[in-house]
Amino acid sequence: MKTSIILFFSILFSITSIAQDKREKLKALKVAHITEQLNLTTKEAENFWPIYNAHEDEKHKIYESSLAKRKEINIEKLSEKEAESLLKEMQDFEEAKLKSEKNLVDKLSKIISYKKIVKLMHAERTFKRKIIEEYRGRHREMRKN
Question: Where does the source fall among the domains of life (predicted)?
Answer without folding.
Answer: Bacteria
